[in-house]
Predict the structure.
Amino acid sequence: MPADFDTIVNLSKRRGIVFPSSDIYGGLRSAYDYGPLGVNLLRNVKAQWWRSMVQMRSDIVGLDSAILQHRKVWQASGHESVFTDPMVECSDCNSRLRLDKLEDLDQCSVCGKTGTLGEAREFNLMMRTHLGPIETDENIVYLRPETAQGIFINYENIRRTQRLKLPFGVAQVGKTFRNEITPGQFVFRTREFEQMEMEFFCRPETADEWFQYWIKARHNWYLDLGITPENLQIRTHAEDELSHYSAGTVDVEYQFPWGWDELEGIANRTDFDLKQHSEHSGEDLRYFDPEVNERFFPYVIEPAAGATRTAFAFLIDAYDTEEVNGEERVVLRLDKRLAPYQIAVLPLSKKDDLVEGTQQVADILRPTYQLEVDITQAIGKRYRRQDEIGTPYCVTYDFDSLEDQSVTVRDRDTMLQDRVSIDRLTAYFAERFALIA
Ligand code: GAP
């Protein structure tokens, strides 16, 4: 059975996946903390993105730029003037709402009153702070509202030092901040989140082709990591939805419990950003092609995904329940590459020699796999817990293990068990995890 929203939120809190930020002070609702399991899941999502976008590509390199950038970056990019959402305020309950998300433009979606919404005004989403001890207009800086600009302002540094020729891409994963008018739906829309973005620079006449290429590649990435195909769709933006820099955008959308919503945008940003930064900085960011003795601004195709939002979608999609021996079993069918723990190592009971054997087995596997050793409760309960957090394999060290130097390996999905000799365990898992590496 697919998960409903509250079930996933409860599971996240109960199992240490995601906690509200500043929980002991009532929470912020704008930011979330990733607990011991959530941090592994999020890291695995980012690692898989990096693997497919950087490690496996000869034409894409990585970057980690600063969150704080010169104010002029955001003036050149257009964010200071147009990175806004239309906001209305309800005179009855004082809620501030995004006009474009209202179902009825005359009704407050919080208190339900009609005729109470004031004039719409454009609200800039960038978070502002000041560099240094004095707060003046001269030292305003913004926390980056997208990782992309860090790539554009380093375009020439990267192209020159890496001796890159078109087409090539630059990828970046990192924190992003937006003062969203209405954060919500748990980690779906927050004011602090993480993005995974890649800017692919190409000759203008090849941009359409690369646009199609990246739509397909990114769609396949989600499917390859196990998202249910029926829960994924590609939606083309209407003309009036396009961002100020875009000549065409599609969204990869996921069917969340509240309906279809965006996981990733893939945009043809044309030469907008490089041109703007050339103009504002005075640096010539055109590309020189010696073969045809030509200088021009490359076009850019940008797949821009949210890491935190994507991790959330994987969690929702993986949630499943089934009946086993008259009891409900909850199982997170996460891909092996994404599961917070890949293996759990469990002694059958708390007896000292079993615990000692368990630790020895764990020591063999720990350098290669994220694992948990769990010695609490009855074994059945521990299996259920590992199912619920998506651990693909449980290794149990029992009384026979003391004699035969073998352990039982239980598969999360099939619940089938194999007896494997400890000295074969590394090869056993290498085979199972290598299949999907
Ligand atoms: N550089 C282009 C760009 O930033 P975007 O569509 O605004 O495009 C890309 O953002 C992705 O970042 C979105 O598809 C979404 O997954 C994620 N994202 C955007 N705003 C978010 C928010 N407030 N909370 C969580 N994720 C967000």
The radius of gyration is 25 Å.
